Amino acid sequence: MMIRAIVVDDEWYNLEESSDFIDKTESFHVVGKYQNPLMALEEIEMTAPQVAFIDIDLPEMDGITLAEKLLETNAALIIVFITSYNQYAVQAFDINAIDYILKPIKAERFQRMVEKIKNEIGAQSQESATIFHIRVFGKLMVTIGDNPVKWQRTKAKELFAYLLMEQGHYIHKEKIIEDLWPEHDQEKALQILQTSVCKIRNLFSSIKKSVQLNYSDNSYCLWITEGVSDYFHVTQALSSFNRENTATYTAVEKAGILFAKGFLAEEGYLWATGKDQQLREDLLIALKEMMNAYSTRGCEEATVRVLKGITKLAPFDEDLNYRLMNIYQKTGNAVAAFNHYQWLERTLEEEYDATPSKRIKDLSVEE
């Protein structure tokens, strides 16, 4: 099977050269070529790439920021930077880029990168051997094999999401109705519940061993025995986290990336806000403990990486943003400080109708 790839470079001749190298491997299919990074971001769901080859020096949005936004859409996306500059290598690997290739591209070096990508794709395929996948951060997306579940009834979709949140526990039907459909009278709400239950069971009838919706003592319970979910990864990472055991750190960092869009944030479920807040707070606690542990041990790169993850979850935290930008300036990385400030300014304005403080703004322009 060909590996789906996109290429982003504002210089058309570099774009064509990189695309030519990729096509000649006979392992990749270039599904999108972009000189404008905003267009690459806009079409990401349509192109659905497995790999993104990105130049760093781009108009409108630098390659590092583009990669971060693409990863928010698909945390499994493999990132490769192809650039004329080597000073961004640390930032590139902060976001888990698989490789960093300098122009002009050398065939032997490019082939080594190709083999690295093939190995990574193979590992992902092995991890995702199960046919059932659930994504809950941002919007709810469920697939059986390669086919997305077509809910048809929005109430069935909402009920599935609600029971997934309490996966493995029985929830009384009156509690379900109270949380999901309080605007309906009892008789109408009960009818909606029963219809939604039937719809869910029909939708997953082909994988009954993986998904079971059980009923007992006026209560419903969703059991998922086989399946991959970003929600399961986040909750497991948090429950397994141990500050004294650095082997648990990687899973928490990945959980922070997965959570970036918020728990069912695009679905508009009022009952989901409590779970969103709980997960966010738990992740921040764990990430702050990791940051302090790395800082105590003198692991500066790891400290910065985790601190970046924290600011993504809590952009309103002035002290943490100041700390990150201060580290950038002290280590001579003024470009990273400026880029972070631009992101922070935009985020605070769009989400909180606020602006960064003067002391943070001053850090963005220091030499």
From TrEMBL:
InterPro entries: AfsR-DnrI-RedD_regulator (IPR051677), BTAD (IPR005158), CheY-like_superfamily (IPR011006), Sig_transdc_resp-reg_receiver (IPR001789), TPR-like_helical_dom_sf (IPR011990), WH-like_DNA-bd_sf (IPR036388). One of its GO terms (biological process) is phosphorelay signal transduction system. May play the central regulatory role in sporulation. It may be an element of the effector pathway responsible for the activation of sporulation genes in response to nutritional stress. Spo0A may act in concert with spo0H (a sigma factor) to control the expression of some genes that are critical to the sporulation process. Residues 4-118 form the Response regulatory domain. This is Stage 0 sporulation protein A homolog. It comes from the Bacteria. PROSITE patterns: RESPONSE_REGULATORY. The keyword Kinase does not apply. Gene3D superfamilies: 3.40.50.2300, Tetratricopeptide repeat domain, Winged helix-like DNA-binding domain superfamily/Winged helix DNA-binding domain. The keyword Phosphoprotein applies. Keywords: Phosphoprotein. The modification 4-aspartylphosphate is found at D55. The lineage of its organism: Bacteria, Bacillati, Bacillota, Clostridia, Eubacteriales.
